[in-house]
């Protein structure tokens, strides 16, 4: 596939970036990026009553967090209204659309009569073939002339061929009586003008495809490749909603999931590449294709998300991981870390990132870094600081003052001390954890000693040796 591939993500700015929308954006991004194509972003803000700048900003922030960069400027659909109107008038001039002067009352009367007779309520306007000389001086809408007879075939890369009889399609409104364009027209014109070659979107838009294809065919435009992807359901098999937990991309950011893990998990929601579960962005771009998308709704599973995120945290480059951790703290509204603490965090990442599924878990393991002397041990840690344990810490301190501060040397001095005192290191670990971190569950004692350094470590151990709980 050449660089001619152009995909787009076209959200409505009426709320946050829904996790389903984030997956749609990801699929479009992967398809374009994997083929050297373009990924465009269009904000479909024609619904002025519900569209807000805050929602548009939230969508952009969610995409930025997920790392879904787009090409070119963000397109506003509302700002292109004049172009949409122009196309409607082109169709009118070509005899492929018509002015309809029917009032709402007349339309409703038609539908009531159709219902009473058991007929289709699709409106058939008497103005479709009316001579212009009969047009009244009254408000009107512009409707497209739907094909009569035959079938329209939607060739969909996911759903297969979907056939809809033309008799099921009405003469759709293109321009309202106030001259404003409808969404269906705007989408088609924008996709055509933006050069979109592949429309990858949720299958809730499948019913729109046939109506939009009428505009493509009437204008003589090529129909993009269509791929309608099943929606995301919760673990209970029902459409994903607030009862299933977080819904917005930024909610997942604030919960501390790494963006790479989120991308990996969302890619696997409804798409597969063999049995591969964990993969990098480079692999996803290389592998992603429309043929790998299933027809059944995907089920959101938080445990699988956490498992993948843990793998991504563990395999992350430390510098990149630290940047994302600091960005997480900023997004959460935490105070900025002092440079000295950031330096310690950097040193500790190799020890901390194993088995942490989220950033809060990782930062919790790093609590010993963020604590300052004198450390107040929690209830469980206090149990490890009885008089016997404090005596052990007091006796150990001189040995630590004269040792080379390396893992091998520290392990050796601890082993010698334990043997000389008729105990095992396991018995010393509890008091040392309490001294260094104020907790009973911590990273490796040796990891903490090496990160904190000799002076700080000995100071904390001395404090604990004199602790009176």
- Beta strand count: 12
How widely separated are the two ends? 70 Å
Q: How much of the polypeptide forms β-strand, as a percent range?
A: 5-15%
Low-pLDDT parts are none
Radius of gyration: 32 Å
The averaged pLDDT comes out at: 94
Structural class by SSE content: mainly alpha
The residue fraction in helices comes out at: 40-55%
Number of helices: 20
Spatial order of strands in the largest sheet: 1-2-3
**Major β-sheet annotation:** 3 strands, parallel
Query: Which descriptor suits the 3D outline?
Result: elongated
Describe what this molecule looks like in 3D.
The protein has helices at 19-33, 53-66, 81-93, 104-116, 183-193, 206-219, 249-254, 259-268, 281-287, 302-315, 318-331, 339-352, 359-365, 367-370, 379-382, 387-401, 407-420, 425-437, 445-452, 454-465; strands spanning 6-9, 38-43, 75-76, 97-100, 141-144, 151-156, 160-165, 173-175, 198-202, 225-229, 232-233, 298-299. The mean pLDDT is 94. The termini are far apart. It has a three-stranded parallel β-sheet with strand order 1-2-3, with helices on one face. The protein has 469 residues and is mainly alpha-helical. It contains 20 helices and twelve strands. 36% of the residues are buried.
Task: Put the structure in a nutshell.
This protein is mainly alpha-helical and 469 residues long. It contains 20 helices and 12 strands.
Write the layout of secondary structure elements.
Blueprint (H helix, E strand, L loop, with lengths): L5 E4 L9 H15 L4 E6 L9 H14 L8 E2 L4 H13 L3 E4 L3 H13 L24 E4 L6 E6 L3 E6 L7 E3 L7 H11 L4 E5 L3 H14 L5 E5 L2 E2 L15 H6 L4 H10 L12 H7 L10 E2 L2 H14 L2 H14 L7 H14 L6 H7 L1 H4 L8 H4 L4 H15 L5 H14 L4 H13 L7 H8 L1 H12 L4
Parallel strand pairs: 1-2, 2-3, 9-10, 11-12
Antiparallel strand pairs: 4-5, 5-8, 6-7
Helix pairs in contact: 3-5, 5-6, 8-10, 11-12, 12-19, 16-20, 18-20, 19-20
């Amino acid at each position: 596939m050449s660089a001619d591939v152009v995909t787009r993500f076209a959200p409505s700015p009426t709320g946050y970036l829904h996790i389903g929308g984030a997956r749609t954006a990801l699929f479009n991004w992967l398809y374009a990026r994997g083929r050297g194509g373009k990924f465009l972003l269009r904000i479909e803000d024609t619904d002025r009553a519900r569209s807000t700048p805050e929602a548009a900003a939230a969508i952009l922030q969610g995409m930025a967090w997920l790392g879904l960069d787009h090409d070119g400027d963000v397109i506003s659909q509302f700002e292109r209204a004049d172009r949409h109107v122009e196309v409607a008038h082109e169709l009118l001039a070509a005899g492929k659309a018509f002015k309809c002067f029917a009032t709402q009352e007349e339309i409703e009367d038609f539908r009531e009569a159709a219902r009473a007779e058991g007929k289709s309520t699709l409106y058939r306007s008497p103005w479709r073939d009316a001579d212009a000389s009969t047009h009244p001086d009254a408000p009107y809408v512009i409707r497209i002339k739907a094909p009569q007879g035959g079938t329209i075939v939607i060739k969909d890369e996911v759903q297969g061929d979907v056939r809809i009889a033309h008799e099921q399609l009405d003469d759709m409104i293109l321009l309202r009586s106030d001259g404003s364009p409808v969404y269906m027209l705007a989408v088609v014109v924008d996709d055509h003008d933006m050069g979109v070659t592949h429309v990858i979107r949720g299958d809730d838009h499948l019913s729109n495809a046939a109506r939009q294809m009428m505009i493509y065919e009437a204008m003589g435009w090529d129909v993009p490749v269509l791929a309608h992807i099943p929606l995301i359901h919760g673990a209970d098999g029902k459409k994903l909603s607030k009862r299933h937990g977080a819904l917005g991309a930024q909610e997942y950011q604030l919960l501390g999931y790494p963006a790479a893990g989120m991308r990996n998990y969302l890619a696997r929601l409804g798409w597969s590449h063999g049995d591969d579960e964990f993969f990098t962005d480079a692999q996803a771009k290389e592998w992603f294709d429309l043929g790998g998308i299933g027809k059944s709704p995907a089920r959101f599973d938080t445990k699988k998300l956490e498992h993948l995120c843990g793998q991504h945290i563990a395999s992350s480059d430390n510098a990149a991981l630290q940047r994302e951790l600091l960005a997480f703290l900023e997004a959460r509204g935490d105070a900025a870390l002092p440079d000295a603490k950031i330096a310690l965090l950097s040193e500790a990442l190799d020890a901390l990132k194993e088995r942490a599924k989220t950033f809060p878990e990782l930062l919790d393991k790093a609590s010993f870094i963020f604590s300052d002397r004198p450390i107040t041990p929690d209830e469980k840690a206090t149990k490890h600081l009885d008089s016997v344990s404090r005596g052990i810490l007091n006796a150990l301190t001189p040995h630590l003052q004269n040792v080379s501060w390396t893992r091998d040397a520290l392990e050796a001095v601890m082993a010698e001390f334990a043997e000389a005192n008729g105990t095992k290191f396991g018995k010393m670990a509890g008091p040392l954890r309490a001294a260094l971190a104020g907790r009973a569950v911590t990273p490796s004692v040796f990891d903490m000693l090496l990160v904190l350094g000799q002076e700080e470590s000995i100071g904390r151990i001395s404090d604990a040796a004199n602790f009176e709980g």
